[in-house]
């Protein structure tokens, strides 16, 4: 006998859940989630980079605790690690948890400790943030901005953490 | 976020997404994905769990260097503790169906009022 027999998929399907949830609110047209057939890919071994010398960056969907509306794509100094980030308008499970520990979604302290131990070379001087509530064309432009900043900062690998 | 990963890879920068919405990320299609089966909000690890948060970043970086093809997912063997959140989040059932319909109606009425007000000001 297995540890925990299941009659349904145990991992939550947010596509199914949100479609049913918003339908129950009376919204007829379901959200159209992004989906791509082809996925661009940089093979690490082809880059000739060594992780222990690499510069690692972070992209977040959260915003600085104080920001001027409307939200815009941004870059902010990675040091010192911010004490708090603005998350309250994003869709996360406010009943099950909280976001008071920024390390749970913004891995700056963890990357600093890996840099101290020589696992990575360094952390990018800036981390990058992107608003998520806009059209795909706006997101394309924002993504290009983040690429430009990442190039300026010499980022070799990027960790993207959607909340 | 999948779009950002696409643009970065096209520019030659290797990426890894760390997240808890497996279906959304895998449907979009990303180069590398570390799946943490937690409620949405703490993809890097539970609050106060410094070692767990570091473990997640290390796993993400391992996937950066180890992946040989796109759409590679690594599922971390981390445990939230309770499973209650799976059914509770965005729950729709006979117990709240009327309430959700009412909230939707209220929201649409507010939006209509805002549109009418901005038209009147234009």
Task: Walk me through the structure.
The complex is a heterodimer of chains A (163) and B (122). Chain A has 163 residues and is of the alpha/beta class. Chain A is built from four helices and seven strands. Chain A has one domain. In chain A, strands 1, 3, 5, 6 and 7 form a five-stranded mixed beta sheet that branches. Chain A has a two-stranded antiparallel sheet with strand order 2-4. The two termini of chain A are 36 Å apart. In chain B, strands 1-2-3 form a three-stranded parallel beta sheet, with helices on both faces. The model of chain B has no long low-confidence stretch (mean pLDDT 95). Chain B starts with a helix and ends with a helix. With 122 residues, chain B is mainly alpha-helical. In chain B, helix 2 links the parallel strand 1 and strand 2. Classes of the chains: A alpha/beta (163), B mainly alpha (122). Chains A and B meet through helix 1, helix 2, helix 3, helix 4 and strand 7 of A and helix 1, strand 1, helix 2, helix 3 and helix 4 of B.
Sequence stretches where pLDDT stays below 50 over 5 or more residues of chain A: none
Fraction of residues of chain A in helices?
25-40%
Helix content of chain B: 40-55%
Let me know the number of strands of chain B: 3
What's the SSE pattern of chain B? HEHEHEHH
Radius of gyration of chain B over alpha carbons? 20 Å
Roughly what fraction of the amino acids of chain A lie in strands? 15-25%
Q: What share of residues are in beta strands of chain B? A: 5-15%
* Largest sheet descriptor of chain A: 5 strands, mixed
Q: Return the average pLDDT of chain B rounded to an integer.
A: 95
Strand ordering within the main sheet of chain B = 1-2-3
Radius of gyration of chain A: 19 Å
- Uncertain runs of chain B are none
What is the helix tally of chain B?
Answer: 5
Mean pLDDT rating of chain A: 94
Number of DSSP-assigned strands of chain A = 7
Global morphology of chain B: extended
């Amino acid at each position: 006998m297995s540890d925990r027999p299941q009659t349904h998929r145990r991992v939550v399907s947010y596509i199914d859940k949100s479609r049913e949830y918003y339908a129950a609110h009376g919204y007829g047209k379901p959200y159209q989630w992004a989906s791509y057939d082809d996925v661009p890919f940089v093979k690490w071994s082809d880059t000739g980079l060594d992780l222990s010398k690499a510069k690692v960056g972070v992209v977040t969907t959260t915003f600085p605790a104080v920001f001027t509306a409307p939200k815009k794509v941004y870059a902010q100094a990675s040091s010192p690690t911010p004490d708090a980030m603005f998350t309250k308008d994003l869709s996360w499970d406010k009943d099950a948890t909280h976001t008071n520990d920024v390390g749970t979604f913004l891995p700056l302290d963890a990357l600093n400790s890996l840099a101290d131990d020589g696992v990575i070379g360094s952390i990018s001087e800036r981390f990058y943030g992107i608003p998520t509530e806009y059209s795909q064309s706006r997101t394309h432009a924002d993504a290009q901005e983040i690429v430009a900043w990442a190039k300026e900062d010499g980022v070799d690998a990027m960790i993207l953490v959607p909340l | 976020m999948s779009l950002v990963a696409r643009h970065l890879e096209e520019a030659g920068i290797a990426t890894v997404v760390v997240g808890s919405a497996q279906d959304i990320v895998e449907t979009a299609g990303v180069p590398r994905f570390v799946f943490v089966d937690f409620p949405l909000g703490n993809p890097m690890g539970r609050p106060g769990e410094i070692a767990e948060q570091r473990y997640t970043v290390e796993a993400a970086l391992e996937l950066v260097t180890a992946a040989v093809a796109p759409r590679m997912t690594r599922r971390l063997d981390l445990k939230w503790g309770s499973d209650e959140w799976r059914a509770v989040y965005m729950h729709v059932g006979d117990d709240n169906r009327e309430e959700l319909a009412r909230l939707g109606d209220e929201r649409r009425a507010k939006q209509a009022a805002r549109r009418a007000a901005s038209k009147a000001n234009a």
